[in-house]
Queue: 4 jobs
Job 1
Amino acid sequence: MSLPQNIVILTGAGVSAESGIDTFRGGGGLWEQHRVEDVATPEAFARDPDLVLRFYDMRRAAIQEKAPNAAHRALARLEREWPIKVPDGSVTLVTQNVDDLHLRAGSERLIAMHGQHLSAWCTACDTRHAWTGPLIDRPPCPACAAPALRPDIVWFGEVPYRMDEIHAAMAQADLFVSIGTSGAVYPAAGFVRLAREIGAETLELNLERSQGSAWFHETRLGPATQIVPDWVDELLKTR
Ligand code: OAD
C-alpha cells in the first residue's frame, strides 16, 4: 500500500468500552437495560419525555466520571504528529460516540456525527448550549428562557450532523479506518463502501468482526487500548 496522506477514522462505542462506558449492542449493552425505541427516537420523546430525559441525564452524569483511554490518546497523538498538514493532508476523526472522551484526549479535527451528551438543544429558538447538569426539571434555555431543551443527540430517524463535512473528508481519503463499531447503524455503516468506491485503503480495528467486515481490505482484532496505539505507532513510523 502506498503511504496515505488523508486519513478518515470512524469510531464507535468500542473505543470507549475500556473507559467503562457500555457499548450499545454487546452483552450488557445499553439497549438491554433500555429498549432503543423507548429512549432514542423523537416519537419516544413525544410519548414519554420524562423517561427519555431521565435516561440521558443518567448517561450525561456517568460520562463525566469516565476518562479517556489509551485508544483515545493514540488517535489524538496521530492527529498531532501526522506530518502532512492541511491542505495537503489531514487526519479527520468522525465519531458516532456522544461522550466527550476524544475531545478530552485532545482530538481537534473531530466530527461528532451523533451529537454530544454535554450539549443541550433548544427546540424553541434552535440554539445549542454547553450542558453538564440534568434536563429533567425543564431548565430555561439560556438564550430564550423557554423550557424547551432536549438532549443534543441524533435520534433514530433524524439526520446525523455535519454530513457535508464528512463527505468532503471521505472524498479526499486515501485511508479509511473504522474502530470499535458494529457497522449496524447507517449512514456510518456505509462509509467503508464510499471509501472503497474512491479507491481508499480500508482497515478495521475491532474486538470482533463487524457486520461490514467483508468490505475492509484488512481487519485487526483485539481490544482498542492495545490495537489502536499499536497501529498508530506503526503508521507514524512509516513517515
Ligand atoms: P455497538 O455497540 O453497536 O458496537 C460496538 C462495537 O465495538 C462492537 O463491534 C464490539 O465488538 C466492539 N468492541 C467492544 N469492546 C471493544 C473494545 N474494548 N475494543 C474494540 N472494540 C470493542 O456501537 P456502535 O457501532 O458505536 O447511535 O453503535 C452505533 C450507533 O448505534 C451509536 O452511535 C448509537 C447507537 O444507536 C446513536 O446514539 C444515534
Note: The mean pLDDT is 94.
Job 2
Amino acid sequence: MSNPYFDEIETAMASSPSLDGRPAELVHLTNTNGMTVSFMDIGATWLSCSLPVSGRREVLLRAASMQEHLRQEAYLGAVVGRYANRIAGSRFEINGVEYQVDANEKANSLHGGSAGFDKKRWTIESKSAQSVTFSLYSWDGEQGYPGNLNVTVTYTLTDTNAVKIDYQADVDKDCPVNLTNHAYFNLAGESAVEDCRQHFLQMHGLYYLPTSQDMLPVGGFQAVDNSGFDFISEKQIARDFLQDEDQKTASGYDHAFVLDALITDGDQVAAKVVSPQRDVVMTMSTTMPAVQLYTGNFLQGIKGKSRIYPNQAGLALETQYLPDGPNHPSWGDKCGILRAGQQYQHQTTYKFEY
Ligand code: GLA
C-alpha cells in the first residue's frame, strides 16, 4: 500500500547507502486518527511525526537526505547513548576504577562519544501496526564504557495521539547509562517561519544546572525562581530568551532542568509546549529525573527536509539523568549509574492535542 508521505521519507533516507554501505530500513506507523510517525534503524531515529492539521503538518525536524543526516551534528531524532549529554574530561570513576571514554567535544565527551548510539545500525526486533522495537548490543569497552550492554527502545503510537518511548537496558558491569531521544519539535510545522521561540512552554522544572563555557554543569542546582529559567507558569520562550548570563554562556536555553520528583511517574505531565497559533499542544511525561531544554542554538546551516534550518528552528526536550552525573556522586539517583544485573527501565511520552 503506497503512501506518498511515507514514499518521500523513504526516498530521502533509504535510496542511498548509510554509514555501513547499506541503505537504512524505515518503519512507518499510523493511528486511527490519521497521525503518522516514521523511524529508521540508523540511530533508532525518530524521523517524522505528522498530524492531520491543515491537511498534514510535519512537526519534527529531519535532514533532507541520508547524506545530510550523516553530515549534521545535531543528533536529529536519534536515540542518544550510552551517556546522553556531557561527561567532563571524558572520564569518571566507578568502584575505584577510572574509565576514559571517547572525547568528541574538545576534552569532553558528548552524547556517548564520536561513535555513539546515534551512529549505530540498530536491529528491528519486532514491529506491529502501531509499534516498533529496536535493539542494540554495545560491547564491554566500546567508546571506553565498561560492560556488555543490551538496549531496547520501543516506540508506540497510540490512538490517543501519543508517541510512547520505552527504554530498557541491562549491563554486566556497573556503568553510566543515560538514554534519550533527540527529536526537535516545531509545532507550527517543520517549514514554518515561526521558530521555537514563539512557542509557549510550561515545565515542572524547579531547578536548573548553570553551565561553563564548555556546557558543563558548574555550581550545582540553581532554583529557577526570578530568572529566565522559570517555566513553572506557561510563558512564551521568546520572553526571557538570552536575557540572563547563564543563557548568554550557552547561546540560549541548553540546560538540564531537574523535574519535580512528584510528577516523574511517567503519566503526569512534566512539560507542555503550545504552538505559536495555539492550534497544537504537545505534553511530555517521563520517568526520568531531568530534562534538557535545548532551543536549537546551533542548528543553522543544516539542510533539512524543507529548507536550510536557521538556529532555533525547533526545540528538544531531552529527558535524561543529569549531565556529567558520573562525576557528581552527591546527586544520588540522578547520576545515571546502572548497576550490573539491574534493569534500566524508563519511559517518555510525547502526546499531541490538535
Ligand atoms: C544537546 C546539547 C547541545 C548540543 C546538542 C546537539 O542538546 O546539550 O549543546 O550539543 O545536543 O547539537
Note: The longest helix spans residues 4-14.
Job 3
Amino acid sequence: MSTATTHGGPQLPQERRLVTEIPGPRSRELFARKQSAVPPGIGTTLPVFVTHAGGGVIVDVDGNSLIDFGSGIAVTNVGNAAPRVVERVQKQVADFTHTCFMVAPYESYVTVCEKLNALTPGDHEKRTFLVNSGAEAVENAVKVARHATGRQAVVVFDHGYHGRTLLTMTLTAKSMPYKHGFGPFAPEVYRVPLAYPFRWPTGPDNCAEEAAAQAIDMISKQIGAENVAAVLIEPIAGEGGFIEPARGFLPKIVEFCRANGIVFIADEVQTGFARTGHMFACEDEGIVPDIITTAKGIAGGLPLAAVTGRADLLDHVHSGGLGGTYGGNPLACEAALGVLETIEQDKLVERARHIGETMLPRLRAIQEHNPIVGDVRGRGAMIAVELVVPGTKEPYPAAEIARRCHEQGLLVLTAGTYGNVLRFLPPLVIPDHLLEEGLTILEKALNVDQNV
Ligand code: PLZ
C-alpha cells in the first residue's frame, strides 16, 4: 500500500490499486453490520466502505483505491473534497452551524440565490429558494406552479425520475423499485410519451415530431391544456437511462406550454452544474425553463437543492408559504459557493466536454465490434451505453457488467427503465489516465464471452 494519506481530496494518489479482492475482508465485516442495522430497502451498488475520496478515486477500508465513474450519482462534480469547498465549510462549521434562514438569515444563502438567478438559462428576472434534496425541490416547484396558475394537473414523461416522496414517486415513471407497494399515489399526475430515439417504434428520424405530437394530443384530449399547471421534464432522463430526447422535442413542448399558460419545469437535479458540458443541460437546445430544479452537483455532497424561476411565479406565493427548517443550511451554502468558484476557476464546463470527447469515441469503437452495445449516448460527463442481447433490442442486464467492472476496481452505476444501461458520471476533475484506464476495464468487462 502506498503512503497513508490522512485526507481525501485531489492530493490522494490518483491510481487504481487493488490490494484485496473487492469487497475486501474489512468491507465484508462492515457490510454484515449494515445488513443487521439498516433495512434492505436501502440498497448498495458496491459494498466497499469508504475512508477517503477525491480526484477520480475512492479509497476503501481495506486500502483499495477504485476509479470512480459515479460521482455519488452526479454529485461530486468538483470532486469529493474539493479544496475551496473544504476550506469554506471548515470555516463555517466553526462560526455557526445553523440559525434557520427563516428565523435569522445569513448572507451566503442570498449569495447562492443571486448566483443561481444569474447562471440559470434566461435573462428575465428570477427568484430562488433553497431546500434540502432534489425531491423537495421538485415538490416545491409543483407547489409554486399550482399556486401561480390556479390549476392542478401536472404532466410528466415516460422514463422520468423525480424522487421518492409521495408526490415525486408519483411523478416518477418506473414502478420497481420506486413505487411498488407504496401507493396510493398523489392525484392529478399524468404521463405522456418521451422522444426516446433508440426505442421509438418508427425509428429515430421522426421521433421528435411524433412523440411531441402524441404528448400534446394526450394533454389536450385527456386533461385539457387549460387544466395543466405544469409540464415537468428532465432535459436528459437520468435514472431512466440517460435518454436524450430527440432534438426538437423539447422546443416543441416548450412552445406548447407557452401558448397555453403552462409552467415549463426543467428538472436539472442530475444534469446540472457543468455535468453535460453546459452549466445546465437546457442550454444545449436554447431552452429557457419557467422554473428549474437543481440539487446534487450544487454543493459537492452537502445537502442542498434549489428552485429557481420566473419572479412573477415565485413571488405569487404568500409570505411564509414556502420553507423548511434546514433549507439552505449555512454549511451547504458555503459548499455551494465553493462549488461555483471551482466550476468557474477550474473551467469544469470545458472539462466535462473534454470527458465526453474522450469517452464517446472509445465507446463507439467498442460498439463497432461488440454487439452487446446497442446504443452509445450522452453529453459531456453524462455518458451511457444501452446494452442489448446481440442482434435484438432485448435488454441485456447491466448489473452483470457493472459487477465485472467493480471486481476490477472501477465503480460504475446502472440505470434504465429496463435495467440495461451502464451510466458513467465521473467527477469532472478525474485525471485523463484514470478515465482511459476505466474505459479499458469497461471494454474488457463488456466482452461477456471472455474472462476479464
Ligand atoms: N430529479 C432528475 O435524478 C435523484 C436517485 C437515487 P434526491 N436521482 C438519484 C435514488 O435511487 O434514490 C433525482 C434525479 C432527478 C430528482 C431526484 C431526486 O433527488 O436528492 O434524491 O431527492
Note: The first helix runs from residue 25 to 37.
Job 4
Amino acid sequence: MPDLSLFDLSGRLALVTGSSDGIGFALAAGLGKAGARIALNGRNAEKLAAAAERLAGQGIAVETAPFDVADRDAVFRAVERIEREVGPIDVLVNNAGVQRRNPFETFPEETWREIMAINVDGVFHVTQAVGGRMIERKRGRIINICSVTSELGRKTIVPYAATKGALRQMTRGLSAEWAKHNIQINAIAPGYIRTPLNQALLDDAKFSAWVEDRTPAGRWAEPEELIGAAIFLASDAASYVNGHVLYVDGGLSTSV
Ligand code: NAP
C-alpha cells in the first residue's frame, strides 16, 4: 500500500465558502473524501441543505453554515458558531464569488459595488474572522480561489478581473504577513470550468468552441479536476508552500 499520509486530512475542519454548488461543492466533497470535516456555506439555505445531504450521503461529515460573505456581522457570527459548536477551522477556502459581464463604459455602479462586496470584501471579512483565530492557534491553511483573470485581461469582465487580481495580491501580501504564524496562504487559479457561473458561456456554442481552441488541453474542465490542488494546499505536503498561485487551467495562462 502506498503511504499517502502527507495528504491525509483526517481530523481537520475545512470551511469552504460558496460551496452549495460548482467549484466550492466539488472542493468540499474532495476535501471531505480526504478525511476533513466540512463546513458548507452559501446564501440560499434550501440549496445549502440539499448540497449537505448529498455530501452526507457520500459519508462526509458536514455542517451547514448559511451566510453571505459580504455581510461582515453574519460572517463573524457564523465563524464564532462553527468554532464553538463544531471545532477550530483548520482550512479556509475562500471560494465564494460571482461574475457579472457588461462593457465597462456602461457597467452599472451598483453591480461594480456588488461584485467588489462579494469577491473582495467577502474574502476580507471571512479571512479576518478565521485568520485571527488561526494566528492564536499558530496554524492554519487558507486557499483563495483566483482565476486566469488574476493575471490576464478580458473584455466585458474588467471588474471581475480586478477582483481576482486583488485576490492574487491578498494571497501574496497575507502570506508575507502571516507565514510567521505557521499559516500557509495560497491560491488556485482555475481556467474555464463547467459550473453554473459559466452557464451562459457553455450555452454559447461559439464561445465554447473558442474556449476549446484557446485552451491547450482542448476542453473545458470539470470542477472535480481542482480537487487535487486543494488537497495538496490543505495538507501537510504543502507545509512550506506560501503565497503561491497554482494554475489549474489546461495550459491556458502559459500559452498564446
Ligand atoms: P457558481 O457555480 O456560481 O457557484 C457559486 C457558489 O457560491 C454557490 O454555492 C453560491 O450559492 C455561492 N455564493 C455566491 N455568492 C455568495 C455569497 N455572497 N456568500 C456566500 N456564498 C455565495 O460559481 P463557480 O463557477 O463554482 O465559482 C466559484 C469560484 O471560482 C468563484 O470565486 C469564481 O470566481 C471562481 N472561478 C470560477 C471559474 C469557472 O470557470 N467556473 C474560473 C475561475 C475562477 P448561493 O447563490 O446560494 O449563495
Note: Residues 17-18, 20-24, 41-44, 47, 68-70, 95-98, 118, 122, 145, 147, 190, 192-193, 195-198 surround NAP (CB under 6 Å).
